[in-house]
Hints:
Layout: H1 6-13, E1 22-26, E2 32-34, H2 35-51, E3 59-63, H3 68-79, E4 83-86, H4 93-103, E5 107-110, H5 115-124, E6 129-132, H6 140-146, E7 162-167, E8 177-181, H7 182-195, E9 203-206, H8 213-226, E10 229-232, H9 238-244, E11 250-253, H10 255-261, H11 267-270, E12 276-279, H12 286-296, E13 301-306, E14 310-314, E15 328-329, E16 334-338, E17 352-357, H13 369-375, E18 382-390, E19 396-401, E20 406-408, E21 411-413, H14 415-423, E22 428-438, E23 442-451, H15 459-466, E24 478-482, H16 495-502
Helix pairs in contact: 1-7, 1-8, 2-3, 2-6, 4-5, 7-8
Amino acid sequence: MYDGNYLAHKLRAASLGREDAIFLKNHQTGEAVSYKSFFDNAERMAKVLVSCGVKPGDRVAVQAPKTQAMLELYVGSVLAGAVFLPLNPAYTGSELEYFLGDAEPRLLVCEPTSVETLTPIANERGVQHVLTIAADEAGSLTLARDAQTAGFMAVDRDQNDLAAILYTSGTTGRSKGAMLTHLCLASNSETLKDYWHFDKTDVLIHALPIFHTHGLFVATNITLMAGASCIFLAKFDANVVRDCMKDATALMGVPTFYVRLLEVEALAESTKNMRLFVSGSAPLLAETHDRWRALTGHAILERYGMTETNMNTSNPYEGERRAGTVGLPLPGVDVIVTDPHTGAEVAQCDVGILEVRGPNVFAGYWRMPEKTAEELRDNGFFITGDMAEMSDDGYVSIVGRAKDLIISGGLNVYPKEIELVIDAVEGVTESAVIGIPDPDFGEAVVAVVVLDRNASLSSEKLLAKIAPDLASFKHPKRVIFVEELVRNTMGKVQKNTLRMRYA
Ligand code: AMP
């Protein structure tokens, strides 16, 4: 029934004929949801969408809590040939105004508590239907779903049709809608499933949010495509995740998960049944990698990707998982490092901008042809904006974002290089190095540092310790000690916030 729909067909193939196999164990409700029951509900969701007038290519916007119903809606939207548009629940009304105005969805799904505020905003922007999903799976959308019968002929969609739009975090200017096709989602998850050896015996701990590429596409699509199961958690809690490990085989997380898990009791014992720990979305400190390995015997597998490209590189399943690197280009993905000024490839091992090309790369930014032309070259390479270097044997290391590059006294300073030296000092937990406006240097290097719980270190002592390892123009002009670094839900340090705070 899904044959003519490129992505839906791929999401369903592995579970056909295994209708009673469990797709999802809902940790909150205790319910074990079979593949049949999940896809039946996704078909009901597709029928609800059609009854709301959703036509192929229409956008379906969702700002809802992480629920099973939201996952069903995602697959239902694919079946209906619509374009799924998940939004971070942290966005406020005025941010929503922008997204709804820009994407012009046919339908908005939100939490019951937001419906009063959001309905007028949505209606003003031409959104005709507002339905709800609550954290406990109740809501008007779930009711409408239950009033439908299963059975839906998936709308034909080919590989170049859009399946989703995900807005980028927009730290530089307006948030941009990345247009993701059936092919870029399907091809990437298929590659990762094989690369990371997922099959129907796997049980993934799903503790990531599902408004973001990592939890929605990497975690969910791989589970479906492998015909595997997941333990579905509404949010990350280190003790709960540790307890789930005895019934699971794999975890996908952001670095913060691993840092928090290292603090819980009886971790090593709990990981005995696990075969794979994946980290991504933000840099995993080599120290975290090493501590995890020493304690559990497992080497965390770090991968690198972004909203616009899905995943690009990964440390190998078999072979060396090199701490501090994001591994090798995935099969079918071309990766080059180029000079930010000329666009020419730099010499091996030199730092430059990472560019990627492959079926995983998005189709451009929604209604922003100029932005698309700036970042997506005619030859298919996407300019990621990440600064990186590639070792002789092909391992990629991300050294920071191009926009985080500090130019102090006319010289380029890569924050990551300084952070690595600071992080190696005894008593330091982690650090973030930023540039702040300075009348003398243009930008001055400032280090924001978190110390270990019982450590005491003055800024003079810290500076004296790092001085021998760094050229003087890289020395921080100021050290600021903080309790913790500001991060977003995906574990990314918010350097913008730090820059504003300390300017
Ligand atoms: P997003 O589009 O929200 O997924 O953010 C993508 C950005 O996260 C990338 O451009 C990188 O800057 C960063 N990122 C993702 N994975 C990693 C990683 N393993 N190491 C370092 N940075 C990463």
